[in-house]
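Q:
My hope is that you can spare some time for a protein that puzzles me. I hope you can help me see how the letters and the tokens relate. Thank you; the sequence and its tokens follow:
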Amino acid sequence: MHFFYLSLSLFSLVLSGFFGLLIALTKAPAFYLLKSPQLFYHFLVGHVTFSITVWLMTFTLAYWQYKEGRRGKVPPLTTLMGMFFLSLSCLLPYGEPYLNNYIPVINNPVFFSGLTLFFLGFLWEALLRANTLRDITSSQNIRQLYSISIILGFLTILSLLPSLLTAHAEGGVKLYFERLFWVSGHIQQFLYASLMLAVWHELSGKRLSSSLLTASNLLLFTFSLIMLVGFFRDVLSYEMRFLSAVSFGVGIGVPVLVHTYCVLRHLSLNMSVATLSLVSSISVYYAGELVAYGGMQSDLRIPAHYHGVVSAVSIAFMGFAYYMLKERLGRVDWERIAKLQPLVLALGINLIVLGFYIAGSLGAPRKTYGFEYAREEKILSALNLLGIGGFLTAVGGLFFVLYTIKSLIKIYKHDSAR
């Protein structure tokens, strides 16, 4: 059944890439493709929702089921219908888009129905694996990270309930949604970090375990729980922004650094798909981290940071998808494309990070339609660099999509022939 969720994650990635390409070409003055501000912001909501939430969470379900198998009758229709409603609401120009962080929204019933259905399907899968929570103190590194991801997945969804009670609209509707998704969105980042680290070890081919890795995993989990303080404080206050920055820096930054050292120290360098995916993921992650340490304001330097770190999770997941498909099919078809794909994608993402960061450093604002604000040739060059990166990212994503579709068709044909 993990191939069903792999198929759904593939579909969400296609939509995310489609939205992202339109946005990148709109932001690049050389193209200036999309001339409708209304559709631009709808597509921006679609890109963020399907790339950060739907794609990564559906692949999370695929990974969970790969590790544990199906634990009960889960209504996959719930997840599928949720994705359908979300995509429909983003493609049609109805409802006011609000570009709050983590989960931007389109204020119409179709979008919220889709988000609710999707989250219910995800929560159900987490509940089915409640008996794995005892492994949170396991000395087996991957097993411990798997258990932590289950708990964090559970908390990501359930934290929305108290947030509905504590969020308020002081400052406007956009800030209401910012408060509503703040706790859930921050815990979600810890969820993705735990899964990325687990997949890094899977791709390395080594089952490393040590007291240092165990302590790092518990550090990540402990700092994720600090986000629950957001139920008792205004999450938009300076106090909470500082707390979240420290929690990310220590609770994610330190464990990732420890795992990076352990993985690279024992890595056998070769040109396999797994190794290339692993190295590409690590390089993109640290590109996103370096720009964060270079200083960020409320401009394009912020998307420079999160495009790096979130894309690192995506590249790791893609690498593991190759692993799952190879295990089922017994070989890697189109191996040259599979090897080239993470390299092209990583290059594209790094150009996007660089373009965002340079433009932001020169004053280019984020989440803004058009490029009339650009007054310097350097900003125009940075935005065109962003467009080139977006194109390469789309090519890398297309490689992955074509490879995965070809492999999944073989699997489904084989299963139906039984």
